[in-house]
Amino acid sequence: MVRDSEFTGALGTIMIPEPVSVSTCDRFTAPVVIRNPLGFHMRPATAFVMTARKFQSEVRVHKLGQDQKPANGKSPFDLLMLAASEGTELLLEVEGADAQQAGPILLELLGSPEVGAFS
Question: Structure pTM?
Fold first, then answer.
């Protein structure tokens, strides 16, 4: 949205657009391999979603090597639809104001080999 201000000078009154601040989005992208022997099942997916929802950034998870829509990282249903078993390669994409903070935390959750890490 551009707001105008008036300036009156020797040539008359002109409208001068005021600058609008635009926040730049940070982005975090990293590949990860599912190392959990049970895959990315309901418990780790729920823990991932609960953590992702603590951040403002958009979170998407892509299954590498497949032409499917990326999963919304804040939706447990979307994440389960990835059907990510052990060894599946994913791409984590976080975009927003707190992406640099959220990305490493979410990446660690995705790559954790321990089933108990999500209890």
Answer: 0.74
